[in-house]
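Subgroup meeting minutes
Present: P.N., E.W., G.H.
Scribe: E.W.

1. P.N. recapped why we're keeping a running log of single-chain structure predictions: easier to compare across weeks, and new members can see raw inputs and outputs side by side.
2. G.H. added today's entry (170 aa).
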Amino acid sequence: MADALDTTTSAATPEKAAYEPKASLQYASAVGLQAAGVGALVSAVQNALGSHSSGAAGIFTRTGGTIGFFAAMGATFALTESVVANQRQTDDALNGAAGGCAAGFLAGIRARSLPMAVASCAVLGTAIGTLDYNGKNLVPTDTESIEERRKRFFKQPRPTASPEPVPDAE
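Output recorded in log:
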């Protein structure tokens, strides 16, 4: 009877890697802080290129909202991505697409436009989903050498068929 309830996998079937749940709040806070750093850099550039009398404090007083916005987008993306991954118990491109959609929607809401929010959701979700689908890498990772690529690109000469000798009819 115990053998009938045995649910172990046999050696003939390949085992799928077990999903490890992500710590959502830890991941979201880490990405939010990193995005806030990027936002501070963008705010500094905005402050340097603008003409004003605020001085260096303008990074926080004039364009400081950029820092918070970047932090909010980063945290929203990371939280959505990890929550969706934990609910689905898979780690694939759809998780990144959902996170990108949430972050894009937030960008559209900041612009106070629902059509822009929906469009930003579609664009960012598609972009991040595609990036995740391609292995989270912008550069192809094939290990093909230059010589192999050259041989594949250029036409190869056809093998010459050796003429068979005609038997003499004597």
